[in-house]
Structures are given as C-alpha cells and as structure tokens.
C-alpha cells in the first residue's frame, strides 16, 4: 500500500467522499483509526468539527444512548454550507424532515405510520411480487447476451420497482424516481450529481417535494390500498402530518428503500466474483443464502454514517464529548472491527454470528431491514441456479459519497442457462 497514512490523514479520509470510492484507502484509514484513535476529533476544511467513532462497541454505545445523543440538528455529515442551508430551510418549515432527522417522541409516532407495512405479515404478502420481479431481472440478464453493467442495467431497477410498487406509484414514473434518488445520494459524485453547489443539489429535493405534494393531494382525494395512501391519510393526535412531514416520509421510503438494497446486491455479486470459492459454496449450499445475505450487507455497508449530537457532557470510549458536539458513527468501520468479527476482511457466506450494524441499532433501526433481506434473497434465489459462469468485464467503480452508496458500475461477463 506504500507509505502508511498518518492518524490525521485517516481522520480526514472519513470526511472525503473520494475515500468511499476507493475501498482499499477507506479501510486502511478506518483500521488506523480503530487502532490508534477510535474516537477521533476531525477538523476537515469546509466541515464543522466532529468526532469519528470507529469501533463497533462505541458505535453501539452511542446508538443505545438515544437520549444522550440526538439526530437533530445534524443527522448526516454535510458541509458547513449545506448544514447552514438546511438549517434555514428547517427554520422556515421547508426543509426535509424524515425519520432520519427525528428524535423521540416524534420519531416513535411518525415511524409507526409505516411500520405495519414492513412487518413479517406484510412481507409475506409482498413475497410473490418480489419473486416475480427478481425473475424478471434475471431474465433481463439473459436477454443481454452475456454481458452487462450489472449496477446500471439490473441492480438499480429491481429494488426500485419493489419499493415503488409498495408505495403504489405507476411504473411510468419509476425512471424519474431513479434519477432523483441518484442525484440526492450522489450529490458528492461528479458523475451522478445534478450540480456542485448546495443550491443546485437542493433543487433535487424541490422536485421530490413537488412530485410527492401532488401524490399526497391525489391520495387524500381518492384513498387507495397502498403505502402512499397510508402516509397521506395518517393522523397523529387526530391531525394529519404537515405537507413537509408527509413529503419527507415519501422521500425516505422511495430513496433509502431501494438505493441501499441495490448497492448490497451489486456489492454482493462483486464479492462472489472476487471469492469464487464462496460462490461455489453458495451454489452447492443454497440453504446458506440467509447467512450469505447478511454477509453481503456487512461487506457492503451501504449506509456509511449517521451523525449524533450530544445533549449533555458525556464520554464515548473514554473520550470527553461536550454538550452540543457531534459524533459520526462509522458503520463500515464497525462492520470490519477485529474485536467483533473473526477475520473481518474475509468474505464468508456462512459467517455466524454476524453482529453487523449496517441497519443501525435501537430506536433508529432500519424500518425496511426485513424487506431488504427478502429482496436480496429473492434475487440470488432466482440467479444462482441459472449462473454457469461469471467474471469481471472491466473495472468496478464506486460512488464518491460520505452517506449512502456503493458500486456505480460493475461490468460483468456471464453465461446463464
């Protein structure tokens, strides 16, 4: 790897979107921080200071202490400029306010609106549709004559169709939702973003708000049997959600509900290509697919971080954190922690136990975790029996991001039966 980076350089790497497009560099930095300075004060140019929390035990500690550490006012890492712009929008009542931005007691009651749609009973009802879509996209691979960019042509579409079907949106709107989602999460990536400025990136949110504002009005005028209608007509203490909260709910479901899953499906396939012994093992032992699914999720960790702000003077890992200071929870680091995982840099489809934190923990545990696992299992259940050979057909590329992302290109060659 050449000259080892310093602890200071490792800390700065956490705030650099390009680090997440270079997995070797990222994991080198995180390994140094876990070993040398696991709760590291980072003062990166253009960002307000924060502490990077890199050990599994410390991330878990912060997640458990949801009264000591709040999502507000800084739920994700953003530049000082973007933080200020978002703050002005929130004060004006026009800013995005999803479950990610909320804390209890509001978080608990708003989360409950969608919770039933992601419980086991609802998942069983959705299984047939998910399986149908999984087979559709494996058939699509077969139509592509043995080569494709798996991310662009398969992985981004399949979970998008699942989540937007759940919401009840027409398929004609799916391409628009895909473009807006990629712009929202790809705001730090020169290929995916709409523009470089904070104002240009917020224009993506403006378009989301306009689209979902029309959807809310339609579902309130003519309620239907879908999740969009449940959100539009939900009441908290007898009152409907505000327009901002309703639209924000749609945004988090429609975006996080597919982008994270597509990243895991793509990253999981890449891992299987890079570890052919594990691919053979999984094809010969399909009963390992539930464990393999969680190993893919750990390996990829599509949500890179959330931020929390201290409500009082406290400590994390023995490091003093003052009231009002922020911590960044590094999930890729926690999920490769040598103290928790046996040989954490080995991709092991039979890893058990697998105490990854890719879905978070505690009150903010991912609402769609069961759906994500079901989608991943369904796709690989459809693909693996038909897969005779597979290899890379070019260089994989990762998204530059500090929040949500994974592979943005995965060129492959393959033969299917």
UniProtKB/TrEMBL annotation:
Q: Which domain of life is it from?
A: Bacteria
Query: PROSITE patterns recorded for this chain?
Result: CYTOCHROME_P450
Q: Which GO terms describe its molecular function?
A: cholest-4-en-3-one 26-monooxygenase activity; heme binding; iron ion binding; steroid hydroxylase activity
Per its UniProt record, what Gene3D superfamilies does this chain match? Cytochrome P450
Report the record's Gene Ontology biological process terms: cholesterol catabolic process
Residues of the signal peptide: none
Supply the alphabetized keyword list.
Heme, Iron, Metal-binding, Monooxygenase, Oxidoreductase
The protein, known as: Cytochrome P450
* Originating organism: Actinocorallia herbida
């Amino acid at each position: 790897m050449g000259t080892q980076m310093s602890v200071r350089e490792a800390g700065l790497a956490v705030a650099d979107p390009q680090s997440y497009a270079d997995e070797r560099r990222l994991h080198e930095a995180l390994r140094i921080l876990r070993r040398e300075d696991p709760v590291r004060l980072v003062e990166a140019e253009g960002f307000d200071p924060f502490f990077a929390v890199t050990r599994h035990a410390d991330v878990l500690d912060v997640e458990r202490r949801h009264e000591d550490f709040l999502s507000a006012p800084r739920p994700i890492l953003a530049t000082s400029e973007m933080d200020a712009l978002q703050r002005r929008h929130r004060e004006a009542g026009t800013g995005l306010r999803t479950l990610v931005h909320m804390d209890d007691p509001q978080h608990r009651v708003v989360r409950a609106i969608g919770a039933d749609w992601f419980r086991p009973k609802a998942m069983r009802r959705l299984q047939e549709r998910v399986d149908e879509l999984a087979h559709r996209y494996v058939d699509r691979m077969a139509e592509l004559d043995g080569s494709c960019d798996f991310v662009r042509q398969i992985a981004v579409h399949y979970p998008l169709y699942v989540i937007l079907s759940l919401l009840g949106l027409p398929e004609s709107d799916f391409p628009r939702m895909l473009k807006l989602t990629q712009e929202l999460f790809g705001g730090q990536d020169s290929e995916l973003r709409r523009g470089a400025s904070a104002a240009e990136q917020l224009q993506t949110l403006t378009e989301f708000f306009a689209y979902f504002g029309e959807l809310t009005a339609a579902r309130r005028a003519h309620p239907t049997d879908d999740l969009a209608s449940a959100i539009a007509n939900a009441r908290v203490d007898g009152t409907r959600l505000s327009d901002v909260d309703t639209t924000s709910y749609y945004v988090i479901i429609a975006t996080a509900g597919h982008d994270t899953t597509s990243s895991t499906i793509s990253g999981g396939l890449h891992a299987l290509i890079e570890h052919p012994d594990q691919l053979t093992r999984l094809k010969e032992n399909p009963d390992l697919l539930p464990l393999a699914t969680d190993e893919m999720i750990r390996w990829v960790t599509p949500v890179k971080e959330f931020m929390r702000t201290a409500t009082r003077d406290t400590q994390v890992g023995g490091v003093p954190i003052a009231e009002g200071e922020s911590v960044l929870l590094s999930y890729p680091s926690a999920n490769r922690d040598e103290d928790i995982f046996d040989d954490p840099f080995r991709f092991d489809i039979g890893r058990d136990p697998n105490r990854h934190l890719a879905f978070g923990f505690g009150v903010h545990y991912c609402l769609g975790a069961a759906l994500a696992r079901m989608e991943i299992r369904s796709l690989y259940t459809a693909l693996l029996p038909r897969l005779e050979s597979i290899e890379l057909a070019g260089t994989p590329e990762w998204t530059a991001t500090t929040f949500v992302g994974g592979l943005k290109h995965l060129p492959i060659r393959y033969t299917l039966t």
